[in-house]
Hints:
The complex is a heterodimer. Chain A is an all-alpha fold.
Amino acid sequence: MPRMTTEEIYTKLEPIVATYLPEDIPISEIDPDSDLTGELNINSAHLVDIVLDVEDEFNVEFANEDMETLRTMNDAVAIIQKKI
Amino acid sequence: MNQDQILTKLPYTKPFLFVDELISISENTVEGKYTFTEDSYFYQGHFENNPVTPGVILVECMAQIGVVCLGIYLLGEATEIAETEPKIALSSHQMDFYKPVFPNETVTVISEKEYFRFHKLKCSVKMLNETGALVAKGSICGMLKV
Lengths: 84, 146
């Protein structure tokens, strides 16, 4: 399979994150620099759900260290890119 | 970590401790019991002149046995620092109820781990009454870390 571009990864990631947005955050609030818990108001349990969904979608596995560096959408894209 | 050690690590006390004993515990499953004594505070108001154990209390009992006890066990197995107090929070639950629980009934909670990753423990949990009939069944998630 050809390597996915960051744009392609982002496009697949956005709907996963959107599933866990609280009702008061519109999907339009998601941008590459969005802090997932700080700005998008995703709780720590849903952050785990996002990672588990990402693992299924991209067929990758996150390590504890990855979780520690995961703050923004771009962080997620970078971690995924490194692993696929 | 044995069953008594787990019970002493539970961060609850009366009137909000809903674990009497653990029957068995392992990497993937836990079983425990609790008796809802008739002097429990919530029977004074739920319901007036008609004491029935509140559903939220049943969920709490299922979470304490099914998620917190199992989580403490798993944390204890995974780390050497079993001396510290774990930080815990309920993150979500989905529960269906089938039978009421009246004062002085003893219930059995059986929980199976679905996953424990990045501090999130998800379990499918059921509660049975003394006749073995299903009282409640669902899933409970909690965040646990030392």
